[in-house]
Design a protein that fits this description.
The chain is α/β, with parallel strands linked by helices. The protein is 35% helix and 16% strand. It folds into two domains: 1-30, no CATH class; 32-223, 3-Layer(aba) Sandwich (Rossmann fold). The protein is built from ten helices and seven strands. The longest helix has 12 residues, at 74-85. The chain is globular, with a radius of gyration of 17 Å. One zinc ion (ZN) binds at residues 40, 42-43, 45, 52-53, 55-56.
Length: 232
Amino acid sequence: MAQAALDLLFPPRCVLCRRVGQELCADCLSGFLPVGNLFCPICGEPQLTSKVCSRCAANPPAFKQVRSAYRFVAGLRHVVHVFKYNNRRSLAAPLAVAITQQIQEPKHPVAICPVPLFPARQVERGYNQARLLAVKLACCWHLTCLPEEALRRTRSTGSQVGLDYSARQANVHDAFAADPGLVEGWNILLVDDVCTTGSTMNACAGTLLAAGAISVSGVTLARASSNGNPGR
Ligand SMILES: [Zn+2]
Ligand SMILES: [Zn+2]
């Protein structure tokens, strides 16, 4: 009721084209660039073949696989920025739906777990955008979303932007802790907004497996290319 009244007073506007009606309109959503079919079967990095990429071949990650829905370019880059930093929490629902349009629902029972923020960062921002996305994705796929205590970030890792692969790995090493009582015996699907090299996902997966998770996979809304391969 309150929401309906608010919508009447302040109707939602598309975050990209400002058209009244939805948080993200169908036209703008159709402009997102899907990752497509050519990617590394393990880390999901877009590339020109479907072979395991050189990074995964040299250092097999702890996760089973990571899949991303769209390239982190143009419109989507702006949407993610607004979702993360401008308190536009209502974008979680249309972005979760956007993920389901590109990524298949898990075939086996899994528990969804967002990539956590460092607590101080979360207080500053007021929310963890990955958790908002994870909760909505869990709704779409009728899955359990694990509570915040399941996986925590135990130290501030700063931004990964501008770091190369090995620096990213080192930056997130030992940065997470999991509660065995909450993760033991689960196949876990990690959820994040953006993935670049998969280093954060890998660190989370290692922690979850050590705490008794059966397997860990990941899904992200966006994929930032880490090596200048096709699609920027
Ligand atoms: Zn629009
Ligand atoms: Zn790979």
